[in-house]
Amino acid sequence: MKYIIKTLLFSFVLSSGFAQQTPAPPQDQAIAIIGAIAHIGDGKVIQNSIITFENGKITNVADASTVRIDRNKFGKIIEAGGKHVYPGFIAPGSQLGLVEIGAVSATRDAYELGDLNPNIRSIIAFNTDSEVIPTTRNNGVLLAQITPRGGWISGQSSIVELDAWNWEDAAYKIDEGIHLNWPRISRWSWRTQTVSKNKDYDKQVTEIEDYLTEARAYIDAKNRLAKNLKFEAMRGLFNGSKKLYIHVNDIKSMTQAVLIAKKHKIRAVLVGGRDSWMIADFLKENNTAVILNKAHDLPPTVDSDIDQTFKTAAILQKAGVLFCFYMGDSPMQERNLPFQAGHAVGFGLDKEAAVSALSLNAAKILGIDKTVGSLTPGKDATLFISTGDALDYRGNHLEFAFIRGKEISLDDKQKALYRKYSKKYNHKIK
Amino acid sequence: MIKKQLQLSTLTFLFSLLLLSVQAQITFPQNGVYDNRDGHYAFTNATIYKSFNEKIENATLVIKDGKVVAIGSRIPVPEGAVVIDLKNKKTIYPGFIDMYSSYGIPEAKRERNSGGAGYFSAGQQKLSKKKGAYSWNQALKPEFRAHEHFTIDEKAAKDYRDNGFSAVMTHQEDGLSRGTSTFVTLGSGREHTVLLKEKAAHVLSFKKGVSTQSYPGSLMGGIALFRQTYMDAKWYQEHGHKNEKNISLEAWNEISELPQIFDVRDKLEVLRAAKMGKEFGINYIFKGNGDEYKRLQEIKAFKPTFILPLNFPSAYDVEDPYDAMAIPLSDMKHWELAPSNPARLANAGIDFAWTTKGLKKKSTFWKNIKKAIKQGLTEEQALKALTHTPAQLMGVADRIGSLEAGKLANFLITSGNIFGEKTKIHHNWINGKVFVLKDLEEPDMDGTYALKVGQQNFELVVDGKMKIKINDTTSIDVKHNYSKGLITLSFPPSKEETKIIRLSGTTSDEDKTWSGNATTIDGNWVSWTATRTGDKKEKSKEKSKKKGKKKKDNKKEGNQDDASGPVLYPFMAHGWSKQPTQNTYLIKNATVWTNEQEGILKNADVLVVNGKISAIGNTPKAQGGQIIDGTGMHLTPGIIDEHSHIAISRGVNECTQESTAEVSIGDVVNSEDINIYRQLAGGVTTAQLLHGSCNPIGGQSAIIKLRWGLAPEAMKLEGAPGFIKFALGENVKRSTWNNNDRFPGTRMGVEQVYRDYFTRAKEYSAKKGKTDHRVDLDLETVLEVLNSERFITCHSYVQSEINMLMKVADEMNFKVNTFTHILEGYKVADKMARHGAAGSSFADWWAYKYEVIHAIPYNGAIMHREGVITSFNSDDAEMARRLNQEAAKAVKYGGLSEEDALKFVTLNPAIMLHIEDRVGSIKVGKDADLVLWSENPLSVYAKAQMTFIDGIKYFDRKEDEQKRIEISTERNRLIQKMLAEKKGGGKTQAFKGRRMHHYHCDDMEDEMND
What we know:
Largest sheet of chain A: 9 strands, mixed
Largest interface: A-B, 55 and 70 residues
Low-confidence stretches of chain B: 1-10, 16-23, 114-121, 538-561
CATH architecture of the domain at 639-919 in chain B: Alpha-Beta Barrel
CATH class of the largest domain in chain A: Alpha Beta
Structural class of chain A: alpha/beta
Strand content of chain A: 25-35%
Mean pLDDT of chain A: 94
Oligomer: heterodimer
């Protein structure tokens, strides 16, 4: 069978009801996207491209002006001249599927009790049926790192695809890292309404380091009788199979965190990284990546450069530090992830480096770049087509999105309500 | 003639006897034989300051029965007086006055386990817990009388006296109205004799103190409560007293003629209280905070007087460069400039008195006065603030503050100029009774001595402290004591020795030689002598004299320390040292989004003259001024944020009642919020500062222009209509509280609040003509809504409640001007259009609380298509920096045209705020509130390059870069200065930061408990 789809029939998508409730079936035909501006994810762009994929894997990415394909070999050909194709964007540090409605505690599953919870696993609480997920997907975010919060060690994150029947189905890389909230260097006193130095900071850092040392000793011991589930969960940190995501923002703490991770031979990634721009060279030297807090944030102090949060990404890029963006605590904001990168472009970040931050570099930081994150033959066909520049509000309109070749629904609850009420008022909508 | 010429050394004995006799209390029974003495003294050969500006040399002061009898240079010493010859070496000053204290007054105690403090855990306390016919509000205590609670606190009194004070004003430092203070001398004995003026002043503040009552929970609530109380007091006096007894209101009226002292937290509270006072014809005396110089011009305009603390901060620890980053420039600058505050006020013609309140050690007071003098305050001004001004302010200048016949014998005898580096206070006479701080005849021992103990020789150096000099860098401290001609010294003979040599002997004034007996470290008695060899410090003294002269010259010119940085407006990083001014601008060849019928003009010019848009088109005539090349750029009207909570001081919510229509954000606009500047950089020029969403009828809002650098009143948009915040739904019914006990608890109850209030407002209106009518500021405001004199902005989410309010409005005959948030507006957009309500929404927020689960980003588009005036707002200090991007979401979600989308953040909010005649579009005659963007403003890549308000360029991206350099340079200069201070032995402190408030609708902690 052969379909040629010249233009996207938005109304078809819009009238298809709550299609997001039904995850897409596996790719059953070869698909080719022809003529699109392909943003590879590694900084390269092909203005007039051919992208083909089959059985969930990308089979070819080429320049359409030099390479021709046999159209008959494809079950579906998407003519996408002038449109943009991107690797699926990745949302690190996300609470998607863990928190549905922020103010309703019954719908919150991100914060576990206790200070040291390396054994806690976010994946099992990930709700694939969250209504927030389709709205996120529809702006190009197709993968997310589902991350627990709270305590000193919050637990383990897992990376999921954002179209699945259940968490097992969604899981892309399970328990891939442990999240550590670095002690705060300053303290807020409610009574005096003042911020002052955390006098226990050094002690707390020592306690954390001691905990790592103890875990290491536990793991190195050959004949342990009593099992410690918490230390068991940390085994991966010391054999290189798990990363340590250190949530940390100020210079001193970041520097210490990097040095301590190095000393214990742990692969660390900094999350937050508010002041990372001030130690960019140090981070580069130590080969430490940063999952940067969103650009849409206020500068840290009154004296700070008013554009600091917009500029940090560009500074990291120039210094050669590997970085990506994350949105913080609010799942409904995940859909604005692409625009953090876009905003940073306005303040000096290279445009394709911004795309990389959302795709390949995020994949590298999360350790999934071998199979996803760029438009590269052999990698998963996890990608989307946007009518325009997906980093800009005016261009970010998805026409197609694929996760491992599965054509996923682009409908969501909000679109359905839009249709419902537009119909009530007889508004003509596209 | 017989004179009782006494030796000075015997005086002290006499003085101690005086303690018992002169102060005898006439109504008290006497145990023993009467021993009344008249305390008759003549102080001769003195330099006397009769008052702060009248100094007489070689003069005599005669006192008797605790009063001055005579003072002058040629008066005879009367018969029967004890003569104290000051030998032309000592100076007499009128006793000093501390104008603000809690001396001898018990501290107010907070009751435990009461509401008010923990908003989310405890219930609310609606009424005062004070039993009896008192005010409904526990923080109003006009009936408190400090003099009824006053007891002499000898320990505290001594501390004051040791620093030269002879009288203080004291009160119970608790509450909004603290009742009366009392004015007392610092004598000992019985309270009866020290109370100088029992009801001295009415003291007020914006601090709730120990009151456990919930109201007021915000600064604006406090201001509203004062307004209502001033009106209630008047009403009570005229009518109310006929029907009820209210001890508090009676007391309020009773003390209304006294000086009114207002204790403020900072310079903005001065302006707020001064404005409020003016409404009721009151000119407060402010107990300030020492930062008045930061808004001096505005403060000066109220012609206030001050009680100033001398709480100059010490330098901060800045040795760790990373830690130093946490210290804001404003704090560093205040460290440098605070000592210049008194001089700046004095030079501005503002009278002030002083207080030691807020100082950990009272001796710091003198250190700091000297700092203030270094910064340009004259000694005369300093003396005036210590004597004349406080006496004048308290209405006791006929008794203290200067030395004249008939006035109290309250004076000091000092070793010289009181502001001199080494001057000591010898005596503090209070009510004719002496307190000896330092023996009058204690010799000046400074110098170097050849000390011989037995066979051992030492070099002794006396310079305040005593030391045995070993060599240029090493010395041994000598413990010493002097008393009535007898001197004792003790020290180890060498650095290594732990045993001590002890000396005792006598001094001789004539040859400055000391001698006596000593015990050596072995316990043997030997004789010792110390022979003066020279004035050790002569050289450096001369140096400092020279310096002093230089400084004096400076003082004459009224100069502050030249090395200090400028005052910034507002006083913080990114503030102006020079406020930008209006200019004629011709912006050429830009893409102009007019928001008018002309639509988007390409390659157009816009001329700005006198703050207005004067011409639009391709070749308007330039009339001088500055030409800005807009090639490739886009010019739009300034962004208007319908829903903002920036620039608000101490509380965005007055949560404590279901209606708080009486409170107003307009009373608490905070011009010193960095978010104003940050938002200018995002193109915002106008914002409605809204009350929070805590109660069905919230407070009044303020519409401001983001005129960075100006004071709060000057930021307000002139002639803007009044608005009030209403709120529905979860916040109002307090869904997230553990145990809410404030009505309403459901949406059903919310409706009834409105029906009740509007019904009562109508009844209230009907009674308004009557003479005994009591003005109720709450209902008065609700009535304004009914009279279409005030517009509603209503926080709302779900369709049922939106529908409800419109129904109530229709029935009660008022209109809902704007529904804000209105995330389900799309469900009832047709009804909103019919009612005429506007909708101001978030672009894409949802799922953060239950009532927004049906929120959709298409909401704006649907409301717009249905004919509702629609805008997007921020409700958030961060989002407001990029409202142009939020507008772009109306293109993304719902497919609006770019032109219509931009109107969501410009013209449409102007229309719903009824200010579209001034702002919102680029039209000839409208205010020149303009933003020049680097590219299409709806692009995620667009940056505001310049932002104009009233034709004044408040933001320029290039100048901002320059500002960053200036901030960094100024920080570095101050850090170096602090390091030098520390190196020079100056005190330093660790920095404690304050939290930056970024308010949202539902922030509601109590901001009034200090």
